[in-house]
Amino acid sequence: MSTKKSSVYEPLTESGAIALAKRLQLFEENSNLLCNEIGDGNLNLVFKVKDSKTEESIIIKQALPYAKVVGESWPLTLDRARIETHALLKQAEFVPQYVPKVFYSDEKLAITIMEDLSRLQISRAALIEGKDLLLLSKHIGEFLAKTLFYTSDYAVNQHYKKSLVKQFINPDLCKITEDLVFTDPFFDHDTNDFEPELGQDVEQIWQDQALKLEVAKLKQKFLTKAEALVHGDLHTGSIFADDKETKVIDPEFAYFGPIGFDVGQVFGNFLLNAISRDVENQGVLFTHIETTWNVFVEEFSKAWKNDGLEIFTKVDGYLEHVLSEIFEEAVGFAGCEIIRRTIGLAHVADLDSIQPYEKRISIKQLALTIGSELIKNQKTIKGPTQFKDYVKQTVNQ
Ligand code: SR1
Ligand code: MG
């Protein structure tokens, strides 16, 4: 992988992406290259460049100097491309099997060139289609445990850890999360977006001081707890998968934050999909939540015992304390994710595609109840089985 700092930024076009791939000699000389811009996310351009004869392909991802979902009125740092490249490289040190290969990056052009994963499907879309993705949670549990443990103070020298924290200072993207996940949905803010029928439920959230106190504490953790290199946006739209393989993409929100944030976003997005389904089809998602946590605990504990560098990792009870704090925080962060995906700026197709409209509204009301309950009951929900029972109880009320 080579990294470059070219002098001028300009957004690529499809022909520009082909010219770049040729200049970098990423394909055979004289190959006939085709290119489509396929980005459907909120922020970036994504070009797929393919050799028409061999069918070999690559992805050229380029950050725009603004948030694509809103337009040029929302300027956004290009530095997120550097963060994404370096996060992918760092994660590949521990779990190369779960991240795309990076071939090239250019900080000034804000591009990352990587493996094309279109043999797989975005897991949100697959889950909406009713696919089970049976290995998804086993892989994600291992991804979480290894990327988070091996970038934390439990595993790395404190000087090196501080240099990593510095490398991954990501204020603009963190600010998006601070606003869109932790702040705006809990106040009458103009970024919020919800159906008029949810007005009363939303008003109840805005008036709920006990809920807001807990959200304030979670936001404070997100702002200050530099525990490990978190992915920072680990929803099911950031995961490619099929029945055998899983790849985590898009770590442009990566920074040193609370381990429970990544775990909670995974829980929250599995739950959003669960409640979008009829009750008889929800089981697989609860199993995914349980498996994610159980594999996370197993792999994190193994790494702690074998590779713990911090002297206190040898003290009885410390691992259990850390794990229970991660779980508690994950429950709260999951609640915030569920609420913001229901009434905030960035929605999810799991809820927005529910038909008919009346059913969509009642499931969104349920989402708001579940989200609020998780946030207010973080301390009483002690493990994945209780988590499942708690949610099922709320679903059946
Ligand atoms: C303006 S960005 C909106 C959302 O898209 C990203 O994927 C993050 O989830 C962010 O909150
Ligand atoms: Mg993304």
From TrEMBL:
Q: Which GO terms describe its molecular function?
A: S-methyl-5-thioribose kinase activity
List the catalytic activities from the record.
Answer: 5-(methylsulfanyl)-D-ribose + ATP = 5-(methylsulfanyl)-alpha-D-ribose 1-phosphate + ADP + H(+)
Q: Which residues form the Aminoglycoside phosphotransferase domain?
A: 37-267
Q: One of this protein's Pfam families, by short name?
A: APH
- Pathway membership, UniProt: Amino-acid biosynthesis; L-methionine biosynthesis via salvage pathway; S-methyl-5-thio-alpha-D-ribose 1-phosphate from S-methyl-5'-thioadenosine (hydrolase route): step 2/2
- Residues binding ATP are 44, 61, 115-117, 250-252
Q: What does this protein do?
A: Catalyzes the phosphorylation of methylthioribose into methylthioribose-1-phosphate.
Q: Which family does it belong to?
A: Belongs to the methylthioribose kinase family.
* Quaternary structure note: Homodimer.
Q: What is this protein called in UniProt?
A: Methylthioribose kinase
Supply the source organism for this entry.
Metabacillus rhizosphaerae
